[in-house]
Amino acid sequence: MSKSGVIVIIEDDVDDRKFLSEIISELGVANELKWLETAESALEFLSTTFQSIFIIISDVKLPGQSGLEFKKAVDDDPTLRRKSIPFVFYSTDANQDDVNDAFLNMNTQGFFKKGPDYKKAKDAIKIIFDYWKLCRHPNTQ
């Protein structure tokens, strides 16, 4: 994990993308943001990029392959798994079955429900970034 690497966000909802973009900007996060709308495009990006990745933030409900299926594909790819990229879900849909699946069957580091208002969403995103900036990790640079 690179502290200065790209933040990969898989989110298909235009309003949520704008909302998250405003929060990240307001937090003063300097990392490059890579916005992707589908799990398939995210997997393609991760498999072909030479850029360091700081974190992956994924919605659960995506067109085509779900966020959970995407996380499983990342875990099943030996090259991507070796990169030890922090992966968190940030989703409106945070039912307990999905949370259980993410933690018990995948190497997920967090599952967050989208905040009901701007302040709560901003607080959650700040906590996620602050945690991963401090955390030691197999690929910490």
UniProtKB/TrEMBL annotation:
Phosphoprotein among keywords: yes
Record's signal peptide: none
Domain of life, source organism: Bacteria
Positions of post-translational 4-aspartylphosphate modification: 59
Keyword Phosphoprotein in record: yes
InterPro entries: CheY-like_superfamily, Sig_transdc_resp-reg_receiver, TCS_response_regulator
SMART domains with a match to the protein in the record: REC
A Pfam match: Response_reg
Protein's name according to its UniProt entry: Response regulator
